[in-house]
């Protein structure tokens, strides 16, 4: 199963200058707990933005067109087709964690969405791709209020695709 996991602001911003434009320790903890022990797929720019490379406790997978790109202790794929063939043989849940280009590329393949919606607007230069929300059913939603460690209200929502058939 392919799942997306990301955080966005009120307008779909997911990044600015190859960084996350907010600080939410609670959301980072949720990310870690949800993805721990599962493979995570990302583009090269997302990989380059990670403070700790690779993320521990997870198989880190990088999808890039750069045929010469290598990353220690990571799997690197150069095409959507080879990545999907690898995922097909895994069984279990594989998380796609960004960036926008990778989300766009695999949109027709994804089965589940884990989205954190931050209840504020931020300046950004990268947006999550448009989603046809009519194809998705909300499974759960949790409101998290700002506190001394988390300066923003946010909602953690999980969706599942209504139609199990993928568009090809």
UniProtKB/TrEMBL annotation:
Residue intervals of the DHFR domain: 1-161
PROSITE patterns linked: DHFR_1, DHFR_2
Pfam families from the UniProt entry: DHFR_1
Enzyme class at the top of the EC tree: oxidoreductase
Reaction(s) catalysed by this chain's protein: (6S)-5,6,7,8-tetrahydrofolate + NADP(+) = 7,8-dihydrofolate + NADPH + H(+)
The entry's keywords: NADP, One-carbon metabolism, Oxidoreductase
Alphabetized GO MF terms: dihydrofolate reductase activity
Bilayer-crossing regions: none
Family classification: Belongs to the dihydrofolate reductase family.
Alphabetized PANTHER family for the sequence: DIHYDROFOLATE REDUCTASE
Annotated protein name in UniProt: Dihydrofolate reductase
Organism: Bacillus chungangensis
């Amino acid at each position: 199963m392919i799942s997306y996991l990301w955080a966005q602001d009120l307008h779909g911003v997911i990044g600015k200058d190859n960084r996350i434009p907010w600080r939410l320790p609670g959301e980072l903890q949720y990310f870690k707990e949800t993805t721990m022990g599962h493979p995570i797929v990302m583009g090269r720019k997302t990989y380059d933005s990670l403070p700790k490379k690779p993320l521990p406790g997870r198989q880190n997978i990088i999808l890039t067109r750069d045929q010469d790109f290598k990353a220690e202790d990571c799997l690197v794929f150069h095409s959507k087709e080879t990545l999907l063939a690898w995922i097909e043989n895994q069984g279990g849940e594989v998380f796609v964690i960004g960036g926008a280009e990778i989300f766009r590329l695999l949109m027709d393949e994804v089965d589940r969405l884990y989205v954190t919606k931050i209840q504020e607007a931020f300046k950004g230069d990268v947006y999550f791709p448009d989603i046809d929300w009519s194809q998705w059913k909300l499974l759960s939603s949790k409101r998290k209020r700002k506190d001394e460690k988390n300066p923003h209200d946010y909602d953690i929502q999980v969706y599942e695709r209504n139609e199990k058939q993928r568009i090809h």
